[in-house]
Amino acid sequence: MIATAADSRRLFPKKTVRDVDVTDKRCLVRVDFNVPLERDGATIVVEDDSRIRAALPTIDYLKTRNAGLVLVSHLGRPQDREPELSMAPVSRRLAELVQGEVRQAANVVGDEVEAASHEIGPGQMLVLENCRFEPGETRNDPELVRRLARLGDIFVNDAFGTAHRAHATTEGVAHELPAVAGFLLEREVSVLRSLLKEPRHPFVVLLGGAKVGDKIGVIEQFLGLADVILIGGAMCFAFLAVRGVPTGDSLLNEGDVEHARRLLELGDRSSCRIELPRDLVVTERLEPGGSVKELDDTAVPAGWMGVDIGRRTAEFWADEIARASTVFWNGPVGVFELFPAGTRTIAEALAESDATTVAGGGDTAAALERFGLASKLTHVSTGGGASLELLEGRRLPGVEALDDA
Length: 405
Fold this sequence. Notes:
The chain has helices at 5-11, 50-54, 56-64, 88-98, 111-119, 136-139, 142-149, 168-172, 183-197, 216-223, 236-242, 254-268, 311-323, 341-352, 362-370, 385-391, 397-400; strands at residues 26-30, 37-40, 43-46, 68-72, 102-104, 125-127, 154-157, 179-181, 203-207, 228-231, 273-275, 280-283, 292-294, 305-309, 326-330, 356-360, 379-380. A six-stranded parallel β-sheet has the order 5-6-4-1-7-8, with helices on both faces. A six-stranded parallel β-sheet has the order 11-10-9-15-16-17, sandwiched between helices. Strands 13-12-14 form a three-stranded antiparallel β-sheet. The protein is an alpha/beta fold. Helix 10 (216-223) runs parallel beside helix 12 (254-268), helix 11 (236-242) packs across helix 12 (254-268) and helix 13 packs parallel to helix 14. The protein has two domains: 5-187, Rossmann fold (3-Layer(aba) Sandwich), CATH 3.40.50; 199-391, Rossmann fold (3-Layer(aba) Sandwich), CATH 3.40.50. 37% of the residues lie in helices and 17% in strands.
């Protein structure tokens, strides 16, 4: 998608790790290691390490240039210092992936942490404790920012998933140290911006998920760029309701109906088609073993709920993808954990396509990983909210704070 260094610089006009001398420097690296955990007996382990693996190119680059790495990330949404949200399991998995030692700090900042940051040698790594254990993190507290800045000589932001947050470890510390991007952040922003600036046509956008309200800005943006927008997932029921189609007990936010009405009116005035499902899979209970049936249309009977697009819709949308030159996908088209058929068909169509294929959002990435197809796409974004805000045309604080190229 991004053919040359000049293209990349145009789409990402900020300094990266290539633009600074990191040799023998301490690099404070903001990564997005907010990964799902699971219990394996008495031990908590990483369930999905895709976000850790996504940061490895930057980590390897810094290690091979004898930088000392101080890695910082949040994990979950701690209310206090819950032991189950410690970064220790993440550090163990990182050590396995890099096949080397990874030290785990007991805290985020403090005298002991600062001393440890000076003790790490060339190519060594220290992982700080969950940065959201510090109350000042989400407030972008100036004192926390100053204490973080003592842990490095250069700040490297490689956490696209939190780039839309003006937090101490994403935006604040970038004003205290020379601040550059890692390879993941650079690629994420460049690929997504290219969808807005230079998509090849036909351009197909596929949106799923639960709420229309979460994607209003993205839909408005793509109505002026795409050739067709395919709308699945629970959000399709707001659009179907506008057209007078019964939705039964399907997930439906009443406020989304008015959003959908306005978007359909905008679509009627644009050159972009909005396509809704033509048939659905429905169930009486959203649990294993519940009654399931395939509808010939989209009228959901009372007492039933729509949980997936039907076969005809999946095949029609797969044909749209096959004819496309650019495809952006955000949000599964059904409850893929229990009813995977529609989402799998879409994922397979993208994997087989010769188009530029970009997927974004945590659930979308999880579905692609589950089907073993993530590597078949051009790019799978590690950020959900960040990717949507960027595609809406918003500025991301974690990117804007970096040094200009």
